[in-house]
Write a structure and sequence with these properties.
Blueprint (H helix, E strand, L loop, with lengths): L22 H30 L9 H8 L2 H29 L3 H28 L20
Bound molecules: protoporphyrin IX containing FE.
Amino acid sequence: MMSTTIENPNYAYPARSKRGPSFEKAGWIFMRASGVVLVVLIFGHLAYNLIWTPGGISAIDFGFVGGKLADPFWRWWDVTMLWLAILHGSNGMRTIVNDYVHKPRIRQIALGAIAVAAAILILLGTLITFTFDPCPPTADPSLLPSFCADL
Ligand code: HEM
């Protein structure tokens, strides 16, 4: 039987050693593990918001989101979905850049931009998830949703 050996397509990072822990292998496993968890988180999120909530998409407004973020269960659900989606998405983009961007300087800039964007999104997303207050006590009452008056 004839066999063909193809060149390692990912020449951005030639394999250094076959022994010891490998970041690339960890990344490969992470993509699969986070993919499985994301299926549960994303479809759970969609089912709850669009199917199990009476009124479906028309019921989604500021009060609905405010109410969800007041519940620790949904805060942790949302923040886990946020972290996994951003880490999974940015690690996937890293793979694409390593596969297709061959100029070292451009690759460095692209990978840096992905890392900075991921860090900012994770930081701001986590901050807002845990600090969101739909009725801030010092705000102008005319700018607040009507349900704040009842609190
Ligand atoms: C529904 C849940 C998801 C599952 C099951 C899933 C699964 C996967 C798997 C297994 C890979 C690796 C493919 C490979 O190495 O050849 C991958 C790659 C990737 N994923 Fe996801 N993913 C999900 C959601 C997402 C989300 C929400 C994003 C964006 C934020 C995303 C962005 C990416 C990107 C950019 C890649 C790299 C594509 C490539 O290597 O060609 N995925 N996904």
